[in-house]
Amino acid sequence: MAYQALYRKWRPRTFDAVVGQEAITDTLKNAIKRQKISHAFLFAGPRGTGKTSCAKIFAKALNCTNLQDGEPCNECENCKAADQGSMNDIIEIDAASNNGVDEIREIRDKVKYAPTQGKYKVYIIDEVHMLSMGAFNALLKTLEEPPEHVVFILATTELQKVPATIISRTQRYNFKRIDQQDLVKRMSYILEQEKVDFEPKALNIIAQVADGGMRDALSILDQILSYDQDSIRYEDALKITGFADQEKIENLLLALTDQKTDQALEIVKQLLDNGASTKNILDEIIALSVKVMLTLKGNEDQTFFIEDYQEKIKTVASERFFKIVDLANQALNDLRYTNQQQIPLDVFIVKASQDMVSSISDKQVVQSPSEVASLKKQLLELKQQVDSLLKTSQNSKLSTNSNFSGKIQDSFKPSNKKVTEPTSAPVQEQKPVKKKLNTNTKASQENNRKQVYHVLENATKQDIATIKDIWPDLLSMLEVSKKAVLGVLEPVAASDKQVVLKCKYELWFERANKDNSLINELESNIATLTKHNYDIVLVADSSWMQVRKEFVASHKEELLAKKLKKIEQKEQEAQKDEASQVTAEEKKQVVDKAKELFGDLVTIKDE
Ligand SMILES: [Zn+2]
Predict the structure, then answer these.
(1) C-alpha span between 478 and 480 (Å, rounded)
(2) How far is CA 327 from CA 286, 324, 480, in A?
(3) Does residue 403 have a pLDDT over 60?
């Protein structure tokens, strides 16, 4: 026997079997019992809430020859015929497909004939709002003077589209969305009867997605069963309902606030593998952050997918989520300017999971008044420290270095733990300050510039081509958190011994430059892939532009000088004056040389 959809197979056959509409089914049963039958009913409500099922049961009960306390017996000839759809006196019309005036006119013509099998001729018009205006008018005529033996049951999901003149001539029943618990109960029952194994958690998910519609809930069960014939697994329910990603997004946000960068990047990878776009992920993160912030502001109506999610996020300061939204918006903006869609996303992940560690707005820091007082005291002391440092460093011409602000933040971190002894810090912390200042001086920038310049001096098209060639393979050799870094780096020039990697974001330049293990791993992987040793020189995007410009400028003079010398020789030999032509030629050769050095991607502006 062909597979029968659960929704059809388990369509309720009695009023008592209809889930979640007790008020309506009780009223209808009473009407049958007392034989107080109106001529027109209007069943309104969301899809899948039991309107058509109730209409069918009601039509069957109207014609049942052996009523059981207002319920159809399901045993008599009429009941059996009705269940099989072969009862001549029950006429079902789908207005969505039969919306013409003719169909309704036909009803009007036939309505006068008495029922052939049962007591009532029942017209069930589904999606009645779909009827054309002409058809509505024809129907109205019939409803105005209905024959004694005729009952109309009109069903609609869009009550507002049904003309008031029709509504006023019917007895109206509003079907409500079915409670999630009722949906779960019904699904459990059906699955038990079908001898299908299930995880209760899975049914909760399905009930959530079905949004009060039994038909949708059972359709989802059908879909899952079409994969796996004998079980309803939580994982499958997540996948089929699209909730897998929702849960992942919630986990992703948690990973960000917990500063678990690796975990966050791994979740992102899974989301991308599942077919989500980077924009999609960022949008979802923003939406969820907003939802979380609403919850933190006391709006308890929000429901989350992960159990105890509210409890988990309540330990995080709401400023943190503001910042995440901010960073995600930046990333969305960056997306518009790059073809490498994943880079802004990965950068976002790293920033959002790390950049806020030293934030003094952290809830834990300022919980009690005594802590606030203690922090104020520390702040004052630090201010004095900075002042004195500024004085001493003015002599060494380092007074404007921005790392003083970094120093302030760093001092806050350890002091959080020892708020009771705020006087312990000052003297010890002067050392790291000096050290920090040294690493970022102009001298080190100059050093970096020289290194890059050195590579450029010896750069060849061959070497850069080699590096670019192995770049995708290099990517696949790294673990996921490092892949993100590689996405931010771009090989821009290479000599026989060194390769210059341009770092797209300043933040990463500093971080990657300090990360010796990463640089070593990259170098060793490059060596494996190219069978040649290249040392890595990192350059920040902004510095790269500057160095390249300078290099081209200086070499322009050098090359021009060489050219001019040759030209002079030529001129002397050939005694010709080609100065104007030569100028154009010279420029082209300079550009060619530059292209050779930097690869084809580079366009050089002639200044
Ligand atoms: Zn019956």
Answers:
(1) 6
(2) 9, 5, 21
(3) no
Q: What pLDDT is recorded for position 236?
A: 84
Each residue's pLDDT tens digit, 451-498: 888 888 888 888 888 888 888 777 767 665 566 666 678 888 899 899
Is the per-residue pLDDT at 371 higher than 60? no
Superfamily of domain 443-545: DnaA, N-terminal domain (3.30.300.180)
pLDDT score of 595: 55
Residue 61 Cα to ligand 1 midpoint, Å, equals: 7
User: Which whole number is the average pLDDT over 386-409?
Assistant: 41
pLDDT, residue 410, reads 34
Ligand 1 centre to CA of 37 (Å) is: 18
- Ranges assigned E (strand) in 45-196: 90-94, 121-126, 150-156, 171-174
Find all residues with CB under 8 Å of 557, minimum gap 6, and list them.
none
With 0-12 / 13-18 / 19 or more C-beta atoms within 10 angstroms meaning exposed / middle / buried, residue 341 is middle
Q: What pLDDT, in 10s, does the model give residues 540-574?
A: 877 787 777 777 777 766 656 666 666 667 666 66
**243-354, what's its fold?**
Zinc Finger, Delta Prime; domain 3 (1.20.272)
Q: Rounded distance, CA 572 to CA 35, Å?
A: 122
H-helix segments, 35-98: 51-63, 77-84
d(CA 459, CA 495): 4
CB 143 within 8 A of CB 152: yes
Q: Which two tokens stand for residue 370?
A: 């005594």
Q: How far is the CA of 82 from the centre of ligand 1 (A)?
A: 9
Distance 107 CA to ligand 1 centre (A): 26
Order across the sheet with 535-540: list the strands: 489-494, 498-503, 535-540
The C-alpha atoms of residue 225 and residue 87 are separated, in whole angstroms, by: 32
What's the CA-to-centroid distance between 76 and ligand 1, angstroms? 4
pTM over 0.70: no
CA of 115 to the centre of ligand 1 (A): 16
In this structure, what is the dihedral angle of CA atoms 173, 174, 180, 181, given to the nearest 10 degrees?
-40
Please say whether the structural domain 180-241 has been given the CATH code 1.10.3720.10.
no
Q: How far is the CA of 247 from the centre of ligand 1 (A)?
A: 48
CATH architecture label of 6-174:
3-Layer(aba) Sandwich (3.40)
Question: How many Å apart are CA 301 and CA 304, to the nearest integer?
Answer: 10
Backbone angles phi, psi at 389, to 5 degrees: -65, -40
- Measured in Å, residue 116 CA sits from the centre of ligand 1 at 16
Torsion of CA 211, 217, 223, 226, to 10 degrees: 160
Distance 18 CA to ligand 1 centre (A): 18
Q: Of the given ranges (28-37, 194-203, 391-400, 486-495), which has the lowest mean pLDDT?
A: 391-400
CA-based nearest residue to 283, from 240, 323, 325: 325
Q: If you measure from the C-alpha of residue 80 to the centroid of ligand 1, how many angstroms do you get, rounded to a whole number?
A: 7
Contact 169, 74 (CB under 8 A): no
Which is more confident, 24 or 459? 24
Overall average pLDDT of the 7-22 stretch: 92
Distance of CA 582 to the CA centre of its chain: 58
